Structures
1.
Amino acid sequence: MFRPAITTLFLILVGFSPSSLVAVTSPTDSVTLKADDSLSLTELATTITPAEKTELPLYPMSQERKQNLIEYSQFKNLWRFVDFFFGIAILALILFTGLSAKLRNWAKVARFRFFVVWLFMILFLILDYLVNLPLSIYRSFIVESRYGFMNQTFMEWWSEDLLGLLILAVIGIVPMWFFYRLVSKFKKWWLIFSIGAIPFMILMIVIAPVVISPMFNKFEPIKDKALETKLVALASKAGIEGADVFQVNGSKQSSKINAYVTGMFGSKRIVLYDTMIDNFTHDEILFVMGHEMGHYVKQHIWWGLGLAIAFVMFSLWLTNLLIYRIINRFKGRFKFDSLSDIASLPLLLIVLSVITFIFQPITNSVSRYMERSCDLYGMDISGVDGESAATAFDKLSVYNLSDPRPHPFIEFWFYDHPALDKRIAFVRQYAVERDRQTIH
Ligand SMILES: [Zn+2]
C-alpha cells in the first residue's frame, strides 16, 4: 500500500495506532526506498507478473521457505531504516533547494487561501509520490512478488496505489487546512489541534471500514456457515451481540493472512481474510478471532485513540518547541520565515517523522502489552487447546514470512506485536495452567 511522507503526516494527524491495533499481524510496513535498479514503468508492466499462486500447502514449512523467511525478515528490518532516512533526505532536498517555496508560489494561482493550501498539498503529494515511486514499486510490488505474496498484475497494483493517493488528496485537506489555520491564529495551536483532531480521528475509525476498505476489497457474508455459527456463538460469549461476520477477498492483493474486529457506536464487524479461512482449522480461527474480540471487549480502539491523541499532543508540543528555531536558522535557504507558511510542510514532516521514529519503542511497548493481554483473552474465551493456538501462530509466521525470533532490539523498537516464538511459548504455558485448574 502507498505510504510516502505525506501519509506519515496524515497518519500522525489522524492517529495512526487505532487501526494497527486491531489486526493480528502488522499491516504491510511503510513504503519508500533507494532505487538499486532504475526500472522503466513499461518494462515493469510487461516483464513482471505475479508469482504463480502455489497450490501446494505451505504448512508445515519447507527448508526453502525457511530460507525465504530469514531473507525476507532481514530485508524488512533493513528497510525500516532505508525507508526512514530516504524519506527524510527527499524532504530535506525539497526544502533546502527552495522547491517547497516554489510550489507555494505556483499554488498561489488559486487565489483563495483554502485553495492555495489544497493545491500546494496536491502538488507536493504528487511530487513526493513520483520521487518515491521507484522505491515504492520495488518494496511493495517487486519484493512482494519475489517472495510470492503478490496476487495482482503490475497495473492492478498500480491503479490501487493511485486510488490511495486520490483518497488522500481529497480527505487530506481537512486536517491540513485545520492545522495551518490554527498555526496562523493561535500561540497554543498544538493543544487546540490535538483536541480538535479527536472528532476527525473517530470519524476515520468509523468510516474507514465501511467506506474506504470496500473501495479496495469485496466484503461479503461468510460462506462457511458452520464457522459462522461458531463465530457468532463466540462473539455472544464475549458479550458482542449483533455483530456482522464478513469474509473479505484479501487474496485479491496478497496471500498474506489477517483478521480483525472493528466498529464504534454499535456498528460491529468481524472480518476474516479468505486467506485465513482457506488455510486455518476452525479451532485455529476461533483462537485468532477470540484474540481479536479481546481487542473489542477491552476497548482497545478507545485506548488506542486515547494513546494516539496523547502522542499527537506530545509530538506537536515538541514540534512547537523546535521548529521555530530551525526556521530561523535556515530561513534564507528555505525561502519562508514562518510555520504558518504552507511551504513549511516538508519541514513539519521531517520533525514529526523524527519524533515518531524516536518514540516508537514507547508506543510499540504499549501495543505489545495489549496484544499479550488479548492472547490470554483468546485462550480463555475460545477454550481451544494450547496446540491449536500455537499452530495458529506458527502458520501466521509461515504464511506471512514473519520472523518468529527477531533480534531483541528490533522487537523492542519496531514490533507492535510480541515475537511469535514468545507468543507460542506463552499460549502453551497458559493452556497447561488453565487445564490443570479445571481438573482440580
Ligand atoms: Zn491483536
2.
Amino acid sequence: MFACAGCGAVLTVPVSRVALPVHAGQLYGHDLLGPLMEPGTYAVNPEPFGPPWRTWDEVGAAEAQARGWYAPAHLLPGGPRGAVVIAPGDVRGTVFIPGCSAGYCCGLDGRDGPNLACERCGREVATRIDDCSYWQAVWLHPPAVHRLAGADGPPAVTSWEALPAQRPVLPPIHPDGWWNPIWAAAVAAALADLLAETDGTPVTVPDGPVADVFRRSIETLLPAGTPARTLAVAGPGLPDVTADLVLVPRHPQNGELWPAPGAVPLAYDVWRHLAFHRERRPVPGAGAMPDEARRDDPPPRQPPGPFRPDWGIFVATLARRPEVRRPWLRRLHDRVRSRPYREPF
Ligand SMILES: [Zn+2]
Ligand SMILES: [Zn+2]
C-alpha cells in the first residue's frame, strides 16, 4: 500500500508491482479509454513525470541526453522520477483539489501536476488523468507518498510457463472491428527497437501473423532488397529459430526480456498472440448458415484499414534509443516526427 508522507493516511488498496505497460504514454483517438493498470497492481515510471514542462531548446541537447532523450521532442517533463501509477479504482482517502481541473476536453489531463489531495491533511498527493485519448490512471506524486511493505512480502514472479494461464487474451482486433490500441502501442515500440538494431538495411518478414502487423511498416521505413535480415518470433514454448532478429516477450511483472541474440522486445500479451494464435477464419461451405442465424450471429467485423502502429509511441521510443544519433536513423526519426499521419502510421 502507499500512504501519505504528511500524515500517514493510507491512500491505496494493497497493490503488487508489475512492469510499466508499453501504452503508458499513449494518446489514442478521441474516446474515453479504460484504466491503464489492472486492478491491484502498480508500476513505477523511471523517467521524469509531469510538470514543470520545458521545451527542447530550454533543456539543451546535453541535459536532455542525460535524461535519456537522444533526439528532439516538443516538451520534456521535468517532474520527479519514480512516479507510481495505479488504477483510479485502487485509490483511497483522496479528494479533488478545487481549481486543479486542467483538461482538454472530456476530463482531467494532469498537465498542471497534482489534482488530488490527501483527505485527512490536504497534502497534494497524486495526479488523476482521465481525459479522452488518455488511459485512465492515478499517478502518485513521489515526494508526497511512501510505500508500506506488505505483510506477506512481494508476490513471487510467475514463471514464463505459468504466465499464459494468468494473462488475459488480447486479440489484435476489438469486437467493434477496430484495431486494438494496445497492439498499436506495442508494435510501435517494437518497431522502433527493431530499427535501432539494424543499420538501415532490409529486413524480411515471413508470411503469417507477424507480417500482418509488422510487414507494411518495415517495408515503408526500410529499403527492400538483398541481403536482408530475417525476423521471427522466439521465446518460451517455441522451438528454436534461426533468424537475425527475434521478437521476444517482455515479462509483464518484472519487465525482464526473454534472452536471445538479436532480441527485439515486445509486450507479452501481444507476443503471446503472435507466437501461438492461429487465425481460423470462417469460410462459406455446404449447408450454409440460414439468414436468420446470420442476422443474429454475424461474423466478427474486420478493421476498415491496414494495421497502423502508434505514431507517438514510435517517435518517443526511438528518441530514447542512443542509436537514434546515427545519421540515417535520425533522418528517419525527423521525417516521421514531422509527418504524423503518413504511412505506415
Ligand atoms: Zn495526509
Ligand atoms: Zn473529448
